[in-house]
Design brief:
single chain; 25% helix; Surface presentation of antigens (SPOA); 3 helices; alpha+beta; extended
Length: 88
């Protein structure tokens, strides 16, 4: 088995960042079932797609049947992602 074939069989964790917010710990501790957490993302904003915690692409939410999916729209810009992380 070649090295390339071996790499193709490695699983990697993907994560999608929908948005974020800041709130006082007291407010977080009072949250219960049904609580709504307002995010800084607006409808139509692109999401960050991460592989092993590193930005690899941007995407948007799509629905396929009863599943929530992400459609890749653009490659990630690491500098933009870093600015996104420091803005929080």
């Amino acid at each position: 088995m070649s090295d390339r074939t071996q790499v193709q069989h490695v699983d990697i964790e993907l994560a999608v960042v929908l948005g974020r917010c800041q709130m006082p710990m007291q407010q977080l501790l009072r949250m219960g079932r049904g609580a709504v957490i307002p995010l800084d993302t607006k409808e139509g904003d692109q999401l960050w797609i991460l592989a092993a915690g590193h930005p690899i692409a941007r995407g948007e939410i799509t629905i396929q049947g009863d599943r929530l999916c992400i459609t890749v729209t653009d490659p990630a810009d690491v500098h933009e992602f870093n600015a996104f992380n420091t803005a929080a």
